[in-house]
Fold this protein.
Amino acid sequence: MRIGWIQALEFRNYRTLSWTPAPALNLLSGANAQGKTNLLEALAFLATGRSFRTRHLADLPRWGAGTAAVTGELRRGEGATVVRRVLTRREDGGWQGSGAGCPWARAVAFGWQDLEILTGGPAVRRAFLDGVAARLAPAHRAALQRYRAVLTRRNRLLQQPLPERVLAARLAPWDEQLAAVGLEVLERRRRAAAALQTEVGRIYPALVGEAAKVELRYRSSAGEVTESAAYLAALEAARPLERRLGQTAVGPHRDDLAIEIEGVDARRYGSRGRQRLLALALRLAEVLPVAEAAGSAPVLLLDDPLSELDGRAREHVLRELQAAEQVFVTSPEPVHVPGAACWTVRGGALSAA
């Protein structure tokens, strides 16, 4: 997949934008706060209807605007689809989005915040894995919403001072629902982790230029459950703890993704530059699995991926990116790569470098 052209109106700091990017590697340079990341965000919003920076639609329109729109052409093979997404301010001051998307369009974004996949808490890694799982199977987001809804109701019951027999009877239907949708979430997360493991094992050594074993392991608080009966048994075993906590103690909301290099937790391995390379490798590891699932490669949106890297590491990263289909890379300083298209971003305007 690639983006043929994009037009934006009142999006972030872009009053108007009309751009035809190159079909392969696009290098975007410019000082801070000029609109480089905003441009990547507009590309992501066009392709997926989502921002990789915020969940709030109100953050996307230009300050003071009543509407905002992003329109563009998404191409796959010989076919093309024009997508238009519009943001409109409601009478109550909130914002709503409209516009049909494209079922095969995918975008993978990388930014400084991805270091938290390695250094942050389990919630960050769960969110990362859920994003990958949703790009592989869009139904994953709906399953997560169902899981959270059942979890909320079950937790409310656990917080009530009920006799054990009464509580068990009232929890039973919610336990069955939680096990069913929980297994659905677990299975997709495990598949996503396995797909990432295969690719990151190749990509990370290529980026650092030396042999290095990377291992990803999905850690389930419910154990290696694959059937409802085992999931229900895990819930029952955790009941005493749940009564004390007033919340569900096992399930996808308590899980984690272990990330190790040469058997050492990635949070304690190597320099910040090495950690940044691993975070980038995790994002690049999505490309092949997503391409196989969607039928076309995702667009890569990489926000300042070369920062904190030495010259050798930069060469390795750029070599890896040249093998991808369509890539957008931002940098505060101009980057020159043979055959790449170079652009300058200044004050919400874009020009050829």
